[in-house]
Amino acid sequence: MPAKKTTKTAIKKTVATKTVAKKAPAKKAPAKKVAVTKVPTKKVAVTKVPTKKATKKVAPKKPATTTIIANVDVGFGNSLYIRGEGADLSWENGTALENVSPYEWVFCSDTATGEVTFKFLINDEAWADDDDLTVAAGSTSVSSPVFSR
Predict the structure, then answer these.
(1) How does DSSP classify residue 114?
(2) What CA–CA distance (Å, rounded) separates 5 from 11?
(3) Is 10's pLDDT higher than 50?
(4) How far apart are alpha carbons 82 and 116 in whole angstroms?
(5) Which of 77, 94, 101, 149 is most enclosed, with most CB atoms within 10 A?
(6) Rounded average pLDDT over 127-140
(7) What are the chain's domains?
(8) Tell me: the pLDDT tens digits for 62-101?
(9) Distance between CA 106 and CA 96 in Å, rounded?
(10) pTM of the full predicted structure?
(11) CA distance 26 to 88
(12) pLDDT of residue 3
């Protein structure tokens, strides 16, 4: 018997390579130049509209407080009064001062427009020995009146 010949059949595999063709960029068509026609514009006169200016409202000026302070011991059970002109004071009728501490009496007024002339009295009867005193409106006067007993 004839010997079997083993024949190797070489199978050649062929690899097919695909080549991809690159596309060239598309050429753009040149843009058509169009002539621009200018349209005449009509000039319009600008009129200014008056605007309201912000006005600052000023509150009425509050009169300054005129303060009169007396540092005096008028004795237990007695009160100190003031008479004068300006700040609603009168030489005929006294106005009681407020006792804020054992030896301090205070009178305050918002109605003074000019100078205030005044004098102190104990119990609206006994006048102080010193001369009339004066204070400007909106100011403070501190004094120590002296009384003869």
Answers:
(1) S
(2) 17
(3) no
(4) 11
(5) 94
(6) 95
(7) 66-140 (2.60.40.10)
(8) 678 999 999 999 999 999 999 999 999 999 999 999 999 9
(9) 9
(10) 0.59
(11) 103
(12) 52
